[in-house]
Amino acid sequence: MVLAGSPIIVSSRYAKVLRDIAVQSQGFTDLSIIIPVYNVSPLLFHRCLESITKQDGISAIRYEIIVVVDGAENNQDLLNSGLLDSDSHIHVIVKSAGGVAQARNRGIDEAIGRWILFVDADDYLPDGAIQALFNETTSNNADIIVSNHARQHGQNQQLISYYDEKKYWDKTDSLNFIQHVLSVGSDQGTVWAKLFKSRFLKNSNERFDSRLLNGEDQEYLVRLVRHMPNITAIPDNTYIYVYNPSSSVRSFNNHYLEDILQTVNVIDDDLRRSELSQDVFNTVFGLYCLDRLLLLIMNWICNPNAPWSYRERRMVFRETCRNTHFAHALKTVPLNRIDSITRRITLFFAKNNLFLLISFIAWLRHRQLKH
Hints:
By secondary structure, this protein is an alpha/beta fold. The protein has helices at 13-26, 42-53, 76-79, 100-110, 129-134, 178-181, 198-204, 216-225, 256-272, 278-301, 310-321, 324-332, 341-351, 355-370, and strands at residues 9-10, 29-37, 63-70, 90-95, 113-118, 144-153, 156-160, 167-169, 194-197, 231-242. Helices cover 42% and strands 18% of the residues.
């Protein structure tokens, strides 16, 4: 759906009334693209926006771009850039700062598309991405369509080919998709590179948990999958995730362990409420815990910006590995279930308390990402 004229800034009840009138007069649109924005540079946002509006075949799709500005005070550069006035498909929502979960929830509530696509403001779509996803909207009565993606470090891109062919999960076996959502190092727990049927999302009454500051995507997807959707996977690359060395994930956060453990505990509870068998639960949750431990090792314990000496890092490492969830996973989950040799070796060293070797691997990894 194309809203005529300038984008609607939802800052009052009158603006909301105008949007409702537009919806009633023109009907629902095909696609709502939700972009949460927090302190992103106008240059990166422009790249993101252009990757959407210049997609092959996009003119044949009625769409809206919902830009949720998470706090006006932290986004003045973008608000003053003119980019939000550059396309009549853009629908801008300026809300008080509350985090990405709240921003995405607001986007879901406002969306009028039959399908919903999440895009982060500093990432972008490869050409043909939307068409590849939309080609599957009528197959298998899909509620969720998932795909491959690429990771970009500087000018270099690495294609993550998780799906080598089309795959399907119907309502009878969609719970098995949880193992992909919680898989190690695959990015399958993100909401990007996926297309969601709006009716399914809204009827599920599930929303992102705004209490969670890390891994809220995975936790949200676990709850969604418990509603037994029809899921289609395609081998196409539909998303470019851009590695940002200054992001909240990589910059040192003294509360990182606390944030991760909060999400781990919530997902533990989510899984126990599902109908997974005990064996599947133990394996799936154990692998997820190992993935979280790897994040802690690389982004927190061995973070170059951490204010710790080597001795202090080693003490923090040992204490972290003693956590009930992590210790149980290291003890019970076979490391041959981990695809990556580097991750498998790192976890083997963690299991045997060989922190010197882990710190060397982490140093190499950070040096690689820096360049």
